[in-house]
């Protein structure tokens, strides 16, 4: 038993880790594994609906596919900039680290904006959920209005799955913002919240969704107040794991939801 | 594990990363973009859905493996980490397939024409 007994406090003597890495990273991996099952369940629910519904719609025109392809490119590029941020952190290049983190956030923001535009277009055309208010001045197209009535599983699973992913991307951008700018990011978040709430029209689901920023500002404020610290290379790597996971999930959503429902004219 | 152990592990991981060049990340990024372009091309081919789904999911699994291995550094982790995390995840996801026979059963439900 002497080989497993640990005498803490002696320099250079430590208990070996089963996974050969530090606890924060293992904790993030465990979270990501559980989150994979959340997305797995949503993807399976979408597939279940698709298999069991004979007249599953194919509503995505070339414009939607082009939009989703650019969104995919944004996410893939953000993963590259994130991995370069992790590398810069390991090499102690603080300026480069901040630059790569901001580049990652910009790509993430680009993804969110394009996704929001896609959602708004679909809702305006009539592909909607009963909880979404009608868009004034927009006539629902017959094609989409029929889909919402005859195959309600499609909008329910589509908005559920992509909405959950969009929420994860938003949280990811906020997470990176806090890691890169710490306390300075809180006023930016609050300014974005006020601007978003004032500018987004009240019939849009994002008018209420923008409150995620307020909740995040409060949570991040409490965390930074309780545990103020300078984030080191390990923290950047853990944040990177989360960001890559968000990218990874989209690699399944994009073909399953968009490409398998392409409208071929 | 105490704090000094954590710092020692963090420093070891950072030291490993200092030795990784950035070139492989660019190759992986390029490969992922090319695979995405292939997927989009396939999306416009009038293929049988089952065949198309198989190809698209195959490509997605390759893309996911590249992201996990290189971007998430799983390739450089110890064997226990690789096997335990990936096997448990794949096992749990495979268990969810149990619902699919029920989806096929729904297609055959309805009023009999007799």
> Which range does the strand content of chain B fall in?
under 5%
Q: Report on the biggest sheet of chain B.
A: none
C-alpha termini separation of chain A? 71 Å
Summing up helix and strand content along with how strands pair, one would put the structural category of chain A as mainly alpha
User: Which parts of chain B are unreliable, with pLDDT below 50 for 5 consecutive residues or more?
Assistant: none
Number of helical segments with 4 or more residues of chain B: 5
Number of domains of chain A: 1
Radius of gyration of chain B equals: 21 Å
**What is the structural class of chain B?**
mainly alpha
What is the overall number of helices of chain A? 9
Highest-level CATH class of chain A:
Mainly Alpha
Please tell me how large the radius of gyration of chain A is. 22 Å
Tell me the CATH superfamily of chain A.
Cytochrome c oxidase, subunit III, four-helix bundle
- Mean pLDDT figure of chain A: 89
Topology pattern of chain B, helix = H, strand = E: HHHHH
What does this structure look like?
- The complex is a heterodimer of chains A (265) and B (114).
- With 265 residues, chain A is mostly helical.
- Chain A contains 9 helices and no strands.
- Chain A has helices spanning 23-52, 62-90, 94-124, 142-150, 153-181, 185-199, 205-209, 211-226, 233-258.
- The longest helix of chain A has 31 residues, at 94-124.
- Chain A starts with 22 loop residues before the first helix and ends in a 7-residue tail after the last helix.
- With 114 residues, chain B is mainly α.
- Chain B has a domain at 3-78.
- The radius of gyration of chain B is 21 Å and the shape is flat.
- The chains are: A mainly alpha (265), B mainly alpha (114).
